[in-house]
Amino acid sequence: MTKPKLILDYVYDHEAAHPDTIYLTQPVGGGKVVDYTWAQTLDQARRMAAHLKSLGLPPGARIAMLSKNCAHFFMAELAIWMAGGTTVAIFPTENAETVRFVLEHSEASLLFVGKLDIWPQQQPGVPAGMPCIAFPLAPKTEFDTWDAIIARTQPLGGRPQRAADDLAMLIYTSGSTGQPKGVMTSFNAITGAAEGVVQTTRVHLGDITESRALSYLPLAHSFERSCVEASSLVGGGTQVFFAESLETFLQDLQRARPTSFVSVPRLWLKFQQGVFAKMPPKKLDRLLGIPIVGRLVARKVLKGLGLDHVLLAFSGSAPIPADLIAWYRRLGLNLLEGYGMTEDNSYSCASTAQFNAPGCVGVPQPGVQLRISPEGEILIKSPGQCSGYYKQPELTAASFTEDGFFRTGDLGELRADGLLKITGRAKELFKTGKGKYVAPAPIENLLNAHPLIELSLVSGVGQVSAYGMVVLAEEIRPQLSNPQVRADVQSQLGQLLKDVNRQLSEYEHLRMLVVISEPWSIENGFLTPTMKVRRGRIEGAVAPHIEAWYNSSGSVHWA
Question: Do the two domains 7-15+38-188 and 429-558 of this chain adopt the same fold?
């Protein structure tokens, strides 16, 4: 039987065939960057792999990484794999409690510490005595450094191999509903997902000679890990750029001039709101409707965002409003929606040139099987499918059908043309006092499409009717001290509530909108590291105010 080609085999082939081709471009401050060719990337990875092997760690040893996206994350992952280990990436925004949980639950033998903004708050979560290695861009520590180890260690030679069913990664979910779960990903699974992403990307990009991507979404999440890192390791034809900081993000994006760009709904919305801050929506809409002028304006808007070279734009990780997709397409950016999850390495469905529609997440990608259960749940069997949950055999057994399909927990409908539409999440359904179940996600999409709103959450368990909480757009919040602005916002939200309710069944109608004063963020614990809302935590925080809101008159309240 022929041995399957796995991700490391692709990497060794690129190292041999294109040693002098630039692979990674890392900003190091002050507008300066350092380029790493395939040969340089693999030289550093091989030296670190030799060091890890010298430590005498057991086969499959879990080695953790706590770092923002950077070139050395890629190098460390390769080193861990070549040394026979399993990678455990921790979100760089996690608190000390979660850092400790992941390190202890995974039984990590060593920790790489990289670019971080809150290391002093996270360091107490690292168990005493755990060996640590600092990446070049890490905060100042007493740890042994990557550069020192590389300088004194000879590279590991040859083509170190891993078995297809060896554990490549433990990917810990971001914990929107509780403690993170460790999703087990084999080399066969990450390779299968990456091969599929490469195939999909090449269909959209055609024969372009220079493929570029910006890596900025957390690499601890399967979306970025599969769609940027793993696909670039398998495909070999992409130069990967990294973002230096939130403050320099636009310059980083313009430096990279990506040909493909993947993001999450909240960032696509923030891009739009940034455009509206410079040009009112009505004026932009009018200009876009003028022949020739409209094309010039659209091109200028995309260039200002750093997206004018993008041939493939994708949104994933959470539902995106259909109106937002339509807006980008009007600018000439063919924004497509995809669908995936940690459990299949974000490789499930994607829109294509032939099969796409706002509000749908595309068709099954090559090799993916999909069906809808009698209860309306989406069931997936994917080449990127995980092996289960680490140390949770009961949960693993409950998460798969007898014939091997993963129970996604998402509700959906398959259209006649094969497009999948997500209609909600089974665990998010709630019943109002009217005895009817309400799916919050579709209603939240309607609210999020309004330019005033950055995020929303629909709730109302056991209440006479549902209600919505909204976080206003970042550009609007500082202006609310102006009574005229506040009154205008109140009026627009009142009209939005009427417009949304007109599109809903009577039992889904929102009683009111509540404007949240403290924006939800990763830092205050109301968003996961991938910027999904933590429903339970938000609902718990506002619980003491619910009765007063329902007893108050008016359709818009200020929290």
Answer: no
